[in-house]
Amino acid sequence: MANIQKVTSFIKENRGEYIELLQKMVRQPSKAGDESGIQDIMEKRLREKGFEVDRWELDYEALSNDKYFCASRSDFHGSENVVGVLKGAGGGRSLILNGHVDVVPEGERDQWTDDPFSGEIHGSHLYGRGSTDMKGGNLSALLAVEAIQAVGITLKGDIIFQSVVEEESGGSGTLAAIDRGYTADAALIPEPTNMRIFPKQQGSMWFKVHIYGKSAHGGTRYEGVSAIEKVQPVLHAILELEKERNEPLQSPLYEGNPIPVPINVGKIEGGTWPSSVPDQVTLEGRMGVIPGEDLNEAKKQIEKRLAILADENAWFAESPVKVEWFGARWLPGEIAEDHPFLQALVEAYQSNKREEPVQKASPWGTDGGLLTEVGGVPSVVFGPGETSVAHYPNEYINMDYVFETAEIIAQAIMDWCGVDE
Amino acid sequence: MANIQKVTSFIKENRGEYIELLQKMVRQPSKAGDESGIQDIMEKRLREKGFEVDRWELDYEALSNDKYFCASRSDFHGSENVVGVLKGAGGGRSLILNGHVDVVPEGERDQWTDDPFSGEIHGSHLYGRGSTDMKGGNLSALLAVEAIQAVGITLKGDIIFQSVVEEESGGSGTLAAIDRGYTADAALIPEPTNMRIFPKQQGSMWFKVHIYGKSAHGGTRYEGVSAIEKVQPVLHAILELEKERNEPLQSPLYEGNPIPVPINVGKIEGGTWPSSVPDQVTLEGRMGVIPGEDLNEAKKQIEKRLAILADENAWFAESPVKVEWFGARWLPGEIAEDHPFLQALVEAYQSNKREEPVQKASPWGTDGGLLTEVGGVPSVVFGPGETSVAHYPNEYINMDYVFETAEIIAQAIMDWCGVDE
Fold it and tell me: What is the DSSP string of A263-321?
């Protein structure tokens, strides 16, 4: 029997065990700062399977001095990474399998049908916060390696399985793993791509734009200047810049995408009283960062475009808008279109699914940005699950796709790392 | 010596006592629900001066059934009106002197130089929340009557001195006084007009406009519809309506006023996350109501104008904006331009100041709206103090103007009510 047939047979025969494992993983409500339970499971599992396991709490002091550091927390107490290394026989290429275990909050409990961390199965769906984003993908990657082991195949290259924290808040977990020296010849991140392959990942940065007016009583509003009326030229400038940035983007990965790298204004707040002229409005938004683009260059573009408002509009000359960068930030990531690991993954997909994979530039950032930009590890994102259910109530994952993904990843691993005959 | 000379001499000679009285009044932090202390002072004073005093707690049940009721509270425990009636000798016209004792909250303590309720004197300024809005004016009116009494003059008509609560939140205090049967041939409200005479008072109503979009991830923002981008057509429609409503307004009282009765959008809030497409935005605003205009007609105008958006814009046809009326509301008020009480006040001003008074339509509502519309009492607003310091930190009143105003009001009272020789 060919290696891949042995592996897929193992996966088919052991579905029950791995569904139970994913249930256990999802039942850990591993929100930021509360990842010990899930990491206990991951550590135990990796040790049982013969990985060399490294578990450590993130060092806030050390990380916060890193220029790529971005977090909403001021300490990382209780947040530990687990990295398991499965040494290969030698002579093969190494691969990082990187997945985060932190999940976003469950939101309003009463919007969930079951408990948000139930792990309940309905048909082929497994429900719970984190099932899609991204414990389901983590299980695919783990199962891929375990299946290879289980059927007696030895890889030539090393597998570095990274079970990281803090992806949802800026990537400190992966940054810590890079700083600790973990590296490889390529990386795969099984984030929910709905089994499409994302060789490029859009980065993003959050910004605020502060717009000013002049206060007055609403009954004499002509004595003031409404900051709300000044929002329109700011929005217009942002839309213009978005257009300028997107027009030159040429890649088959952007095909059919009307705005490959958008700038989104997501929040607005201004004024304090219905009968006062509002003297300030704040916009909050997300600027997409083009794969390969320097973050600071991108920042300068929006700052410059909004500074030009002062030339176009006397009010903005007097009261310039201010741009502030805050909150989360994801570096863009990518892998060369002809990179052999990407080719291995595409071929594994073709051979398993008997069709071409969809390849796209991702509309959001992952820890692949840090792996690419900081770690120097070419990264590709491919996993089960759809982002349309991530971060929402009744998040679920279709187990069929978890197992299909595991088969494809196993095939790609064997091709890339090489099999010791 | 002429009566007015006796009165002005009394006022000049007794400044010290009345400054102390105003200090006592300002030192009562009479925010909504906490007016007992100031009403104790008012009740005691009126009794001492021979007024028939009526003090009662507002009856929420009874008031809330009144169609003109508008309040942010759900009970009036601890909020009492004090009304003092000084019966005239007979044969004269009666006058309501109406002033509110409730004050708006002091806001951030550290923005005040002194304690917000200090009553401190610096030069001719007396400082504290409520000094301008409107305890200083109340003192002017009280002093006017007390000076007339003190120099031995008997009025023919009755004086109804109303020390009311709840003006800042919709006028339930004055409404309660009307419901209790208090009426007169005219009313004066010494709100801070900076000694200008306001024969017309703009009313106002608060509204919300709910604007809808369609949510999506910011990285694929083209899959959503930004409610923030839909604000502009709504603002435009509101500005158009404001123009339509103001163009026909013809009165010398509106002269030089670019927008006599504005519609102000004072607050905006929408979206929840920088990297999500915002699916809702709420505007909060204040619609000025023209003196003589029906509130419901005014409401319909804005509702109709925003409904037309659906004809102009496909998105609004699918997701119409919603208009909601909420919070505070002030009825417009007025007195006929040739009303003899207005004439008496104008002449008193001319004779005291040796110049013409400035007459304007007020840019804001007062309890004069209720007195006019519900009580049927023609009302004029005239008092010391500037609204530019009301509701702000370091509110103060210039005592010189408090005493000048008292002199002018005393003269107007004697002319209007008649003096029993």
Answer: EEEEEEEE-S-TTB---EEEEEEEEEE-TT--HHHHHHHHHHHHHTHHHH-HHHHHS--
Average pLDDT of chain A to the nearest whole number: 95
Nearest CA in chain A to B230: A232
Residue among B12, B78, B17 nearest B45 (CA): B17
Please state whether beta strands A203-212 and A52-57 pair in parallel, antiparallel, or not at all (unpaired). unpaired
Q: Is B144:B409 a contact under the CB 8 Å cutoff?
A: yes
Q: What is the pLDDT of residue A271?
A: 94
Q: What are phi and psi of A99, to 5 degrees?
A: -145, 140
Contact A261, A200 (CB under 8 A): no
CB B387 within 8 A of CB B192: yes
Q: Between B159 and B110, whose confidence is greater?
A: B159
Q: Look-up: residue for tokens 């309040």?
A: B71
pTM score, two decimals? 0.86
3-state SS assignment for residue B15: helix
What band does B212 get if pLDDT is binned at 50, 70 and 90?
A: very high
Q: Which residue matches tokens 């810049």? A: A241
Contact between A273 and B262 using a beta-carbon 8 Å cutoff: no
Contacts of A265 in chain B (CB under 8 A): 226, 228, 271, 278
Chain A residues with beta carbon closer than 8 angstroms to that of B271: 265-268, 284
Dig out the tokens for B116 from the structure.
Answer: 């917000």
* ipTM greater than 0.95: no
For residue B281, which residues of chain A lie inside 8 Å, CB to CB?
Answer: 268
Over its C-alpha atoms, chain B yields an Rg (Å, rounded) of: 24
A318 vs A328: CA distance, rounded Å: 31
Q: Pseudo-torsion of CA A391, A393, A399, A403, nearest 10°?
A: 10
Q: Which of A403, A414, A412, A416 is nearest to A10 (CA)?
A: A403
- Is B167 in the active site? yes
Nearest Cβ partner for B229 among A235, A262, A363? A235
In chain B, pLDDT over 90 holds for what percent of residues?
A: 88
Question: With contact defined as beta carbons under 8 Å apart, do B319 and B212 qualify?
Answer: yes
Nearest-Cα distance to chain A for B158, in Å, is 34
Can you give the pLDDT at residue B329?
A: 87
Burial of A196 per CB tally in 10 Å (0-12, 13-18, 19+):
middle
- Shortest Cα–Cα distance, A56 to chain B (Å): 31
Burial A277-295 (b: 16+ CB within 10 A, else e): bbbbbbbbbbbbbbbebeb
Q: Are A277 and B288 in contact (CB under 8 A)?
A: no
Going through B290-402 in order, the beta strands assigned E by DSSP cover: 322-330, 333-334, 359-362, 379-381, 396-398
Label the pairing between strands B80-86 and B159-164.
Answer: antiparallel
Confidence of residue A387 (pLDDT cuts 50, 70, 90): confident
Known catalytic residue: A158? Answer: no
Query: CB-CB: which of B273, B285, B363 is closest to A267?
Result: B273
**pLDDT value at residue B409:** 98
Q: Which domains does chain B have, with CATH numbers?
A: 3-201+332-417 (3.40.630.10), 204-330 (3.30.70.360)
Distances in Å between the alpha carbon of A3 and those of A8, B191, B256?
A: 9, 90, 90
Inter-chain CB proximity A218 and B272 less than 8 Å: no
The residue among B30, B28, B55 whose CA lies nearest residue B44 is B55
d(CA B298, CA A164): 60
B164: which 2 tokens?
Answer: 């009311």
